[in-house]
User: Fold these one by one.
Assistant:
Number 1:
Amino acid sequence: MKKFTIAAALLALTLVVSACGANSSSGSNSQTASGNKEASQKVTKIIVGTGTQFPNVCFIDENGKLTGFDVELVKELDNRLPEYEFEFQTLDFSNLLLSLETKKIDFVAHQMEKNPEREEKFLFNKEPYSIFLTKVAVDKNDTAIHSIDDLKGKKVFTSPTSNQAYFLEQYNKQNDNALNIVYSSGAANDLVNLIQTKRVDASLSTDFALAFYPGADGKPALKTVGEPLIQSDVLFVLRKDSQELADKLDEAIKSVKEDGTLAKLSVQWLGEDFTKTLDEAKAK
């Protein structure tokens, strides 16, 4: 098993300076954390950017350990890619893509989705590791909002640079700025508080994420309404010069899909198998 550490910012910056980029290679004189690689094998260290504020996806548990679906998946992929050694660096969500662009990290694992703006700057691997439908999310007792059309003139909460933010911005362009978009990078419970205190009226969420927005009773404080607005493939985000790494990640993802490991991780952390396509889900 490989040993994982949460890289401190200073270490990441040192790697950038010394390796002219976040990743660096080690040859015959290097010993990987797995301890069982041939001495002549070249191993490339990869810095993986993730967060700590997404419950069950990437977060710090009660023992101070970084864990969650994306984190444990990356660990499993690392075990299947002997030519790489992955090391985590935690960042605020709003800083992930900037850190990727400036070569402080090598890829992002944070339930990221494609949009045209991101595709202009970055490379995505091809094999999705989750598939989600995004809808309008409101207080569970709300009876006035039934779809996005009911949000005209209302405040809608989202995280900057997220796929949901991009969708809302495009919606505003096409609908005469009908929505008042409120940006934040706070934790999940901040959203619940904002909605319950009427400082915002709604957000966008997937059904799987509702359990991560608990109220005082421990049950989901929000609900989704209306038709799905976004059908999203969740992918890793890399720099455009990282095609080889992207291809290797795709190979490893296909492997964990084929042997059922990915589905097990999804059920364990997300409560359901979110690795199936819409057609596969409907055929169940």
Number 2:
Amino acid sequence: QLTVWHLLLLLEVGPDALSLRCFTCTKPTDLANCLTIANCSEGEGTCKTTVHSVDSGYPFFGNITVTKSCSEVCVPAEPDGIGENHPDYCCSTDLCNVGAGQPASTTSSAVVVTAAVASGLLWTRL
């Protein structure tokens, strides 16, 4: 039930409260430094992250350079797309583009944990 208090609250915070918020950096920036938050415009329903470079090599602690923005259209990278020059990652909830791409799913994390426990049990022969 919508009360006068709710209406006053909506008027107080304004229309920006209803817009999507994304992390943004317009120039390629180190992932750890891309922390500016923007209220997206009407019609921009996606947060977009483009990965520009990943310094590779063992132990894989290289810097990741990204650009991030609000976007009307975002075509995500293929999950198994190897060798894409600048893959795009898309999401559509507030501040969802905090990282450099899609987070690991709960299912894949559970599989990894189960495999690790099974390996440990086999190793100790329990």
Number 3:
Amino acid sequence: MGVGAVINAFFSTIVEIFLYCIALNQSKGKLVEGSMIGSVLGGVLLLPGTSMCGGAINRKTQRYNPASAGVSSTMLLYSMLAMMSPTILYEIYGQYEVECTACSPEIGGSDCRKCHFFQPSIVVDQLYLNYLRPFTVICAISLFLAYCIGLLFTLKTHAAMIWSTPVSAEKEKREFAIEVQSIKSSEQSSQHHHASRRPSLRPQQSSHHVSHSMVSHAQPSVSMQQQPEPAAGGHDAPNWSRTKSTTILLSATLLYATIAEILVDVVDDVLSAYPIHPKFLGLTIFALVPSTTEFVNAISFAMHGNVALSMEIGSAYALQVCLLQIPVVVLYSCYKNAGLTSVDSIVDGFGKFVTSFIQHGDEVSTANIDNMFTLIFPRWDFFAVMISVYMFTYIYAEGKSNYFKGSILILLYACILIGYYFAIEIDSTGLGMVKSFVMN
């Protein structure tokens, strides 16, 4: 089940990495930033929320292994801290600016001038080149190493502990109780057999009473044996061979990559036709469309009673965004902006990539922030992602699924998405300055 969840999320990850690299080549850094955050929010809020609500259609409550939930929660919390560490460093040591507005003719007086204190978006300065960018690369490498360690832990060394379900644990308890009861019944039967050979002054009804007692004691074990076990849920075993399945997966991935390239090419037409910010477009369309297969599979598995796989698909998708997509895109961004060309050899290219962190030259004036993925997010992104991951890990660690928890996750996703819309509007229109005049 774990391998299936990883494979299911891995092939969609390849498509999204290809999409992000094309977007960076076309100077759409805000689109990539919004897509990354939107993918994380969709993986920890919308996907598990819809899966829980879909699974509640046929079953009020479903259970899964809390041990697996604990591992996924730990990896999610680590990935969030490592991913947001450059943002924390920039919030502490980044520059702040004061923007003031002159007095308007409508407003008079000596104190009509208003100033606004804010922190601008990341710029390519000496702070970024000397400290933030190397720290970003270190965080990206640590995220990828955590991904490899997590795969080794969950799929090889501790797979039996992770993927055991509460149903199997209850089954083992019932089998042990049946075995103990059968031993007691055999001992009582042997004692009754020896007692029947000795003369006794008791009436013959006692033997009937003992046999009746044996039957009454044996009946619980029989009823326990005949008690139907809960179904495991899911679909039937596939009839495809490994070669056929691999071929279809690779073909579908190539087709999705082609569609992703077309999607990036038409972004400019969409932005010119509709008043949509590129980041909000990435939060919604670019984050949710490539993960459609994850949503369909997760809801389908939950409706068939296999909510454990549905939850694991959501957590695996969010983890692969943080532990695989982000490191690859960060390294690609640094490699692309290190002054490399297609004719450079591998050795020379790697040397330029390494020395670019030491010899900066005129990078401050020539670099374009829209061509880079800096792994430094605004404050609203930081708080929204951390709160969402905390809510998901809190609900996920309980080991139970119902429509109430799913509805809470969906409502939180809707609130955060609406908050993004207003936050982007405030940043783009400068309403923080207008608010000062309204209060007068």
